[in-house]
Amino acid sequence: MSKKTRSAILNGALLVGVVAVAVWRNPLFVNGQLTGLALLFGLLGVLFVLEWFRETTWGRWAGVLVTLGAAGTLLGLDLNGANVALALICLISLIRYLPDDDDDDAPMRSLVLLLREPHYVEGSMMARVASRAWGCEVNYESAEDDNDDETPLEESTPFLVGEEPPFFCSKYPAMLTIHSFPAPYFDDPQAVADEVHEVRIRAAILEHTAWISCDLITWMDDDSGEAQADVLIGQLLAEFADDNCLAVIDLLDQSVYPFLEDETEAALRSPNPRKALEELPYDPVVTISSDDPEMKAAVQIARDRWPEFVEAFENRTDKQHFAMKARFEEHDSVEFMWVTVTAIEGDHVLGVLDSDPADVKSLLCGDRVRVTLDNLNDWMFVDGDEEPVGGFTIAVLTKRQRGE
């Protein structure tokens, strides 16, 4: 028996006791007419159902209102000691609906896409998108539709409610909301961007004009973890992961990932979207002043110890990987990127670009390049004991990325 079922049975037993005493003290019919006791029965029945939604914001507020209504009905029946005591019992149950501090601080399980341009979406369209994403029929219902279907949610067909965002969507055991707004996600994008040191993420924050998200409201299956909702969220947002997308925000751990054309969509469709996003193959692009003393020192060490790299490269094994970071320039743009070294010819290094350029548009990851030692910025290889050697600038970049 699940925790929620046990809790609901306990709550139900308490409410049955309240009803039994109320019936004993008050007649159900007077002159052939139902009394306020009938209303009390209805309210307590609703409260019993709300037990399954007590962990959601709307469920808590509904529970508070219904509980107050039940207490008021008891007092309205007959202002005697027994009814006052029963009303107090109802009011005490309000504590069950008060959020814990831990619940308030708990991050939302949600993914957000930052978009260049807004997506036009309405209810029936979003239901079709959800159907395609999840491989099942998702029924569309407008907010005005009357739904007399009493089928339990676990047996019901997935459905989406709302003519315009936000949409409410049920696909058991998940209840989700889908937002899509033609406005920046942040109240002050410039202030947020000023705190970000990764070039592509900062650009996404400043350039996006709209956003779309999918949030988990509640997970109704105690026998499985709510992390499974990530799959539904990822599959839905993957339908919008195209060249209009600039970045993905994971609200659960407050991470932001720049959009990579094929990799991001594949990550969203994976069995573990959050982990796949975290493992996306991209090199952070961090802006650092040319006068940064720590960076200048790290670059100088790399240049001074370059002969060490050359000697190791000449005696390399098939399994070893050698890379150098070099300066690339295009018009007014300067970018430092990693290159897999394939040959060294005096002061020239040949290799394959191993980074995704952010500003140097004439190059692509995988392009063959030829650089001179004048543009050397860093180098790295793995020695015979599989220990990394080099990477002198990495520690500085990591510190600057953290804002240190």
Strand order of the largest sheet: 4-5-6-7-8-3-9-10
Largest sheet: 8 strands, mixed
Number of helices: 14
Amount of helix: 25-40%
DSSP E strands, number: 16
The coarse silhouette is: elongated
Secondary structure class reads: alpha+beta
* Rg, Cα atoms, Å: 30 Å
Counted up, domains total 3
Report the uncertain regions. Answer: none
Report strand %.
15-25%
How are helices and strands ordered from N to C? HEEHHHHEHEEEEHHEHEEHHHHEEEEEEH
Mean pLDDT: 80
N- to C-terminal separation? 51 Å
Can you give a write-up of this model?
The chain is α+β, with helices and mostly antiparallel strands. It has 3 domains: 3-101; 107-278, no CATH class; 293-401, SH3 type barrels, CATH 2.30.30. It has 14 helices and 16 strands. The chain has helices spanning 3-25, 36-50, 57-77, 81-92, 101-105, 123-134, 189-194, 199-207, 229-238, 263-268, 273-278, 293-304, 306-314, 394-401; strands at 29-30, 33-34, 110-115, 139-141, 159-161, 167-171, 174-181, 210-219, 245-250, 255-258, 322-330, 333-345, 348-353, 368-372, 376-382, 388-390. An 8-stranded mixed beta sheet has the order 4-5-6-7-8-3-9-10, sandwiched between helices. Strands 14-13-12-11-15-16 form a 6-stranded antiparallel beta sheet. The longest helix has 23 residues, at 3-25. The two termini are 51 Å apart.
